Q: What sequence folds into this?
């Protein structure tokens, strides 16, 4: 546990054990703003995802000094407005479930106020992997500061990184709001590799601002519409209008270190992926499955590999007979409809090699055969945008629920 947690116990023992700090039974809901970042033209989404996949694999070798995961696929950012300091400066931070550390300063400079305390420590996180020519990173001092959310809810002495350098982050984001598991921050603190840093949700729970260590994530599917509010981030509970079905975090290593679950996948009556472990991750654009499962899916859909984009491609006649892709999770079935299985055609020209009017599928090859790699699937953004997703650390489980966009037919539109 990072030093700040010890400081809280030392100086505010009653806030940990009981009375002065109110435990809020109501949840904290913040709007998410979606930003499509195509400032440099087209994007090779697969290449960015591969960097994240490689880093996931590298991090789970015995050498825990391996690089951390890239935070996002660069074109798509869901950010939340967070106030830091007193008076607060507002930062728009990208939400990342695969990274636990929160940092600021990439676009809007960090502003020191009377609540800013330099910890005397420095953090360094590399987002990327040497095997893939995509590198980004953050390094800089760690400060304790006051964080303000929504209607004035404050968290004191929250440890956050202040960027001195941030190569690879040039899309206008201010930094990262990390809600990944805490132990992933080991070896990010210089001169103290065994120290870890609680993520933001952990800190809300530690300071009794929320009664449950739970995050609910709602993303609206991508369209051509202008940047706007396109989702919500809920701390401490869930959207009461959603009927959430839960499954335990898997016990299979290394998926158990992330937001890992067990699932199997079918396409109509065709078996695609047998029951196995993988992870849920906001930072990967596509849905990834084991190589043999990918071959099963390609054969079942009649898709061909498009050499220009690297994506599976089908004809309009094949699309008309596309069946549901069913995810069997915790005794429930979550179905990706035909529309949910394709890339938004309105954004085809933003793909490197993309062609107007073509139909590309969002299922991708994870690069290792069943039970031969660290994970057999990654349910990325294209899955999460169709289901309200709950990350529940209090009871070690992940939940999903249908939304008004689960069965939407927005992707086929040009």
A:
């Amino acid at each position: 546990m990072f030093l700040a947690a010890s400081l809280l116990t030392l100086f505010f023992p009653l806030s940990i054990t009981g009375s002065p700090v109110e435990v809020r039974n109501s949840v904290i809901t913040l709007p998410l703003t979606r930003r499509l970042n195509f400032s440099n033209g087209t994007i090779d989404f697969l290449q960015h995802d591969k960097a994240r996949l490689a880093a996931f694999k590298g991090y789970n070798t015995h050498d825990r000094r391996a690089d951390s995961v890239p935070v996002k696929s660069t074109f798509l950012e869901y950010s939340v407005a967070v106030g830091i300091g007193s008076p607060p400066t507002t930062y728009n931070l990208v939400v990342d479930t695969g990274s636990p550390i929160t940092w600021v300063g990439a676009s809007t400079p960090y502003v020191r106020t009377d609540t800013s305390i330099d910890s005397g420590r420095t953090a360094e996180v590399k987002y990327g992997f040497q095997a893939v020519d995509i590198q980004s990173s953050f390094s800089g001092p760690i400060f304790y500061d006051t964080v303000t959310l929504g209607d004035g809810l404050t968290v004191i002495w929250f440890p956050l990184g202040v960027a001195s350098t941030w190569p690879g982050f040039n899309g206008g984001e201010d930094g990262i709001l990390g809600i990944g598991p805490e132990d992933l921050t080991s070896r990010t603190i210089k001169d103290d590799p065994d120290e870890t840093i609680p993520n933001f949700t952990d800190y809300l729970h530690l300071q009794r601002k929320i009664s449950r260590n739970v995050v609910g994530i709602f993303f609206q599917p991508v369209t051509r519409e202008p940047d706007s509010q396109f989702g919500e981030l809920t701390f401490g509970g869930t959207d009461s209008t959603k009927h959430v079905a839960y499954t335990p975090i898997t016990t299979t290593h290394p998926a158990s270190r992330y937001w890992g679950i067990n699932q199997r996948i079918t396409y109509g009556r065709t078996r695609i992926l047998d029951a196995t472990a993988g992870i849920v991750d906001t930072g990967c654009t596509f849905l990834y499955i084991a190589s043999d499962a990918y071959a099963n899916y390609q054969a079942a859909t009649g898709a061909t590999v498009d050499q220009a984009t690297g994506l599976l491609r089908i004809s309009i006649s094949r699309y008309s007979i596309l069946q549901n892709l069913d995810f069997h999770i915790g005794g429930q079935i979550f179905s990706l409809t035909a529309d949910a299985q394709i890339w938004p055609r309105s954004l085809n020209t933003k793909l490197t090699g993309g062609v107007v009017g073509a139909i590309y599928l969002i299922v991708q090859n994870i690069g290792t055969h069943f039970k031969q790699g660290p994970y057999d699937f990654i349910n990325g953004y294209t899955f999460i945008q169709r289901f309200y997703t709950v990350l529940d650390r209090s009871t070690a489980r992940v939940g999903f629920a249908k939304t008004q966009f689960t069965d939407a037919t927005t992707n086929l539109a040009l």
Q: What stands out?
A: The longest strand covers residues 134-149.
